[in-house]
Amino acid sequence: MTRMEILERIGLDIPPASRIRLLVDTDAKNEADDQYAIMHHLLTPMFDVRGIIAAHFEQKAGGAGDSMEQSYREIEKLLTLAQIDDVPYFRGCTGPLKIRNDAPDCEGVRHIIQEARRPGKLYIAVQGAMTNIAAALNAAPDIAPNLVVLWNGGGPYPDGRPEFNVMQDPEAVRVLLESEAEVWQTPQDVYCTLEVTLAELKRRVYPCGDLGRYLYDQLITENHVEYNPGFLLRTGENWILGDNTTAAVLLMSRFRGNWHMEHAPEILNDLTYGSLPGGKLIRVYDSIDVRLTMEDLFCKLELAYRP
């Protein structure tokens, strides 16, 4: 079945001029929220999804070398459950950059370059390591002015702190911040507000066919694996769907004033922020509308997949 056939179930009639060309870059098997974010992008008619690229999570995986492949297989599984067979997906880089100007070759990097060289802006929703984007920028610096990188990561301002997505490849983040690409950042203290309870997910997501059951069950499994009483982000009955910020920043009104312009920081060795001389201005989000974001996701899942 095509993605357009799934979108016809949702039945939204939007202005053609509102469509945005977009790639999703995701460490899909890292935890349990990327799957929700992938589906949010796929079920949003405004997004012309040109492909999904698998990202590694080698820092967490202990350098085994197979985390990108795990993400790739998870994307494949999710698209099968979603009954979407016409959205291409690609293998990304298998590990972080070795040096600043490293440009590892893979099908995902080649696809970024190909799409970025088409007319118009290309938005990239980055939900994990920045490696694939940095490799593309290093291999083809000419694409930078055509990119808008939606960066879900980095510590809170002004000081920053070690944050999971940056930890996967700090050098790649430095490449992005020193490039000419436009950057919209949602830092950790903001993406952590996209909080849901297990009861919400049981009521709103679980009934949405085979896909809904999988989304719910895999999160419950991950909740048992990941739960640590000392990790303040999780209570045992909640989860952070933080990767959905890359859909939220495009769905929300741009007139809200919920972001500010900030000089791109230097990523220091301890992953805090320093001053980057001549750093470009980037957009930094101060808040996300949680109600709008979560209700939009739940409604689209229900309209597309609930019997």
Describe this structure in words.
It is a single chain. This protein is of the alpha/beta class and 307 residues long. Helix content is 39%, strand content 18%. It has helices at 3-10, 34-42, 58-61, 67-81, 107-116, 131-139, 164-168, 170-177, 188-191, 198-204, 209-226, 245-251, 290-305, and strands at 20-26, 47-54, 89-90, 122-127, 147-152, 182-186, 195-197, 238-240, 259-263, 266-267, 273-274, 281-285. The strands form three sheets. An eight-stranded mixed sheet has the order 3-2-1-4-5-6-12-9, sandwiched between helices. Helix 1 packs across helix 13 (290-305), helix 5 (107-116) packs across helix 6 (131-139) and helix 6 crosses helix 8. The model has no long low-confidence stretch (mean pLDDT 96).
Question: What tags apply to this protein structure?
Answer:
Inosine-uridine Nucleoside N-ribohydrolase, Chain A, 18% strand, 307 residues, two-stranded antiparallel ribbon
Brief overview, please?
The protein is of the alpha/beta class and 307 residues long.
Radius of gyration: 18 Å
Quick one: overall form?
Answer: globular
Query: Could you say which structural class the secondary elements and strand pairing correspond to?
Result: alpha/beta
Give the CATH H-level superfamily.
Ribonucleoside hydrolase-like
Helix-strand sequence: HEHEHHEHEHEHHEHEHHEHEEEEH
Strand content: 15-25%
Q: Class, according to the CATH hierarchy? A: Alpha Beta
What is the average per-residue confidence, as pLDDT, rounded to a whole number?
96
CATH-defined architecture: Alpha-Beta Complex
> CATH topology, which one?
Inosine-uridine Nucleoside N-ribohydrolase, Chain A
Overall helicity: 25-40%
Kindly report the spatial arrangement of strands forming the biggest sheet: 3-2-1-4-5-6-12-9
